[in-house]
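Tutorial handout. Part one gives the primary structure; part two gives the three-dimensional structure as tokens.
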Amino acid sequence: MAALDLFGRRWSLRILWELRAGPLGFRPLQKRCDDMSSSVMRQRLTELLDAQVIHQLPDSRYELTSLGLEARHALNPLARWAERWAATIDPQGADHTDDQSASRVSHPDTVDDGTPERDSAD
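Part two.
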């Protein structure tokens, strides 16, 4: 399956996740991705651009496309599971990472029952 090949590559899902809140330029995105190497970042961005999951804005920032937004919504159940899993293995809720984006994240794009909210454009 092509999607598994694309998203199974190291950093691809992380880039998608970091763009969930809005457009980011190369350097801010690289910083949020634990300062991954520039060459790997360029390669992953090119792959995601070619797959039409992200696009580059005229000001050079990267943003999710409608396909990227759909993928982000599809990842919400995984993110909620990850929060439950983290609470199970660390009931004290301690976040042992230094990465602020890896800490617990609220999901404003889901409704109370955990289903994705529909975008007004849908």
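Part three, for discussion. Residues 97-122 have pLDDT under 50 and may be disordered. Residues 14 and 33 are 7 Å apart (CA to CA).
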